[in-house]
Design a protein that fits this description.
Distance between the termini: 55 Å
Number of helices: 7
Oligomer: single chain
Number of strands: 0
Protein name: Helicase-associated domain-containing protein
Order of helices and strands: HHHHHHH
Length: 128
């Protein structure tokens, strides 16, 4: 049997070292946040400096990067568009109005030049 010095989830370790947050790793790997968090706590014991590497990489990331909640919101808009063949309207139901407001705020940020390149690329999936 392999010892604890070998990671059970090396991909989580690499993502963490690259600056992804625990929540982002859990979301991308379809895992529970607490599971990823516990794994990384254990890994810090066997790989000293992992947290320092993570914090340095996180500091280098764009502060306007697409967060997990931002990505979920984009997925909601994409799902709405796939079902209704149109973007959400500010005249619709409460949920639709909320999505329309989110799309409008993204457009405003883009027009003002305040949007990270990663978000622009992800938003390219939406029709004009």
């Amino acid at each position: 049997m392999t010892g604890w010095h070998v990671s059970r989830h090396p991909e989580w370790d690499m993502m963490y070292a690259a600056g992804l947050t625990v929540r982002e790793i859990a979301d991308r790997c379809h895992q529970i946040v607490a599971t990823v968090h516990l794994h990384l706590q254990v890994r810090e014991k066997y790989s000293p400096g992992l947290r320092a590497t993570h914090e340095a990489a996180l500091a280098r990331r764009d502060p306007d990067r697409p967060t997990t909640s931002w990505r979920r919101r984009l997925d909601e808009v994409l799902t709405f568009h796939a079902i209704n063949q149109r973007l959400p309207s500010s005249q619709g139901e409460v949920q639709e109005r909320s999505l329309a407001q989110w799309v409008a705020s993204q457009r405003t940020a883009y027009q003002q030049g305040k949007m990270a390149a990663a978000k622009i690329i992800l938003l390219d999936q939406l029709p004009n």
